[in-house]
Amino acid sequence: IRSLAPGTRVLIVKNLAAFEQRYGSKFSSQIAGEYSGNLSNDGELITLVDATDSNILSFIYNDQSPWPEEPDGDSYTLVLINPTGQPIPEHGDPSSWRASASPGGSPGDTGSSNYNDWKIANGLPIPEIDTDPDRDGRDNLLEYFEGTNPNSSDLASGTIAIESLTLEGIANDYIVFRFRRNLTADDVSLAPQISVDLSNWLEGPANIVLHERTRISDIQENLVFRSTSPSRSESQKFGRLKLQLK
Q1: In 3-state terms, what secondary structure has residue 181?
Q2: pLDDT digit string (tens) for 73-86?
Q3: What pLDDT score was predicted for residue 3?
């Protein structure tokens, strides 16, 4: 394979014979070759270069929370969320990655769900993205994002609060976002945001970072984001979670 069309994928496998014994020949056209060595389970630098030895991207990954921990020895794969999105995901940011929904991952495929397929499967009308058929206070986009049933009332799972966290041995109060996420809902972007006036909202790793994550089911995980700076008791702060269907 010497070139790739936009949005396509290739496979670089450890052992071609073993791979084809497991998956057959259906991925033959996507296999670019075999690799030697292995990636460190403790994280390391990964660099992708082009034919002229120029860097396409370079980043450091890890196997400890807030990075997904399941790929470390549990046969799950590390999946980049919405790699064709704009802006391009920050590869060194753990919130740009997730574990695969099933062991072994989805070779040659995204392994992602699709909002329109989910909508049809649940018999939702059009337009329906901001409606709430089960009247539990959570619209359909939020139900899809959280991996819950839009036709069965559920208790709200997300919270935004001031919590005491100890970082590097120092305890401080931070704005903390807690919510669950559908692992395969890669077509929904999320952005925890904070504001002091309800008009100007701040987001991104300079203001809010992923603090920890916990797998709670085959397709769901709990995410915890926190503000990068401690919250002063004398200052007024607001928080919200912005979701957008891509």
Answers
A1: strand
A2: 778 999 999 988 88
A3: 83
Distance between CA atoms of residues 81 and 89, nearest Å = 8
Report the pLDDT value the prediction gives residue 172, as an integer from 0 to 100: 95
Q: What six digits make up the tokens of 170?
A: 């120092």
DSSP class of residue 88 equals P
Report which residue type is found at 86.
Q
φ/ψ (deg, to 5) at 50: -95, -170
- Nearest in space to 221 (alpha carbons), one of 67, 73, 118: 67
Query: For residue 221, how many other CB atoms are within 10 A of its CB?
Result: 19
Listed in sequence order, the residues at least 6 apart from 207 whose beta carbon sits closer than 8 Å to its beta carbon are: 194, 227, 228, 229
Q: What is the pTM of this model?
A: 0.87
Helical segments of the chain, H only: 16-23, 115-121, 140-146
How far apart, in whole angstroms, are the C-alpha atoms of residue 80 and residue 89?
8
What token pair was written down for 16?
């071609």
* The residue type at 195: S
Among candidate residues 67, 140, 78, the one with its CA nearest the CA of residue 104: 78
Domain extent listing, the chain: 11-99, 112-246
